[in-house]
Amino acid sequence: MSKSSSKNGLLEVFAYVAIVISAIAWLLIGLNNAIDQINFGGRLIGALQLVATILTFIVVAVVAFGFTKGRGTAVKVIYWVIVIVFLVCVIFGNVTFK
Question: What mean pLDDT comes out for the span 24-41?
Answer without folding.
Answer: 72
